[in-house]
Design brief:
The complex is a heterodimer of chains A (109) and B (119).
Chain A: E1 9-12, E2 18-23, E3 35-40, E4 47-50, E5 64-69, E6 72-77, E7 86-93, E8 98-100, E9 104-108
Parallel strand pairs in A: 1-9
Antiparallel strand pairs in A: 2-6, 3-4, 3-7, 5-6, 7-8, 7-9
Chain B: E1 3-7, E2 11-12, E3 18-25, E4 34-40, E5 47-53, E6 58-60, E7 68-73, E8 78-83, E9 92-100, E10 105-109, E11 113-117
Parallel strand pairs in B: 2-11
Antiparallel strand pairs in B: 1-3, 3-8, 4-5, 4-9, 5-6, 7-8, 9-10, 9-11
Classes of the chains: A mainly beta (109), B mainly beta (119).
Chain lengths: 109, 119
């Protein structure tokens, strides 16, 4: 098992939506409903935005939503705002280890 | 508000031991939950290193297990990680975080500390 696969980049204009995929295997993403997503502005602490595939922590806007189908999880950011310009990482528990995604740089045009 | 702050030497020589500490404020480690270390090499993604709970039960990334140890100091509300026999491949940002299980996610993170392995 290795890092989960994410597209290196995604972009959208303010107000648009962007969806990021996170592909793993049946041993991680597909096998457990324990996918989480993190937003990271360089130089700052990463921030949890989705846990257990679809759950949003308190204070995270409902513009952020998560889903999963088979071995692929997805994060959708609706109504893009300037502050959403950041790196996004998925992560999944895998029984004996924990894997992060390769990361996606979201650019708000 | 839970806050975590990493500290440690910014420069470590090859073959030596990297030691980092994470001080937790706003929450008492002895109250529960799990505590973890991650790292991010330059230009690469995040990698989980190790996790420990308040009782000292440890969990390690199998790929690093032979070189890593994690410990907790509840009296000073901090936890630490040691990585032995470092090489240039161990260069990167190191982050500490609180880990929630079940659920298996990191809900609070530190800002990270940069470690460079070089002679």
């Amino acid at each position: 098992q290795s890092a989960l696969t994410q597209p290196p980049s995604a972009s959208g204009s303010p107000g648009q939506s962007v969806t990021i995929s996170c592909t793993g295997t049946s041993g991680d993403v597909g096998g457990y409903n324990y996918v989480s997503w993190y937003q990271h502005h360089p130089g700052k602490a990463p921030k949890l935005i989705i846990y257990e595939v679809t759950q949003r922590p308190s204070g995270v806007p409902d513009r952020f939503s998560g889903s999963k189908s088979g071995n692929t999880a997805s994060l959708t950011v609706s109504g893009l705002q300037a502050e959403d310009d950041a790196d996004y990482y998925c992560a999944s528990w895998a029984a004996t280890s924990y894997f992060f995604g390769t990361g996606t740089k979201v650019t708000v045009l | 508000q839970v806050q975590l702050q990493e500290s440690g030497p910014g420069l470590v020589k090859p073959s030596e031991t990297l030691s980092l500490t994470c001080v937790v404020s706003g929450y008492s480690i002895s109250s529960g939950y799990y505590w973890s270390w991650m790292r991010q090499p330059p230009g690469e993604g995040l990698e989980w290193i190790a996790t420990i709970n308040h009782r000292g039960t440890t969990y390690y990334n199998p790929s690093l297990k032979s070189r890593v140890s994690i410990s907790v100091d509840t009296s000073n509300n901090q936890f630490s990680v040691k990585l032995n026999f470092v090489t240039a491949a161990d260069t990167g940002m190191y982050y500490c975080a609180r880990y929630r299980a079940p659920g298996f996610y990191f809900d609070y993170w530190g800002q990270g500390t940069l470690v460079t392995v070089s002679s």
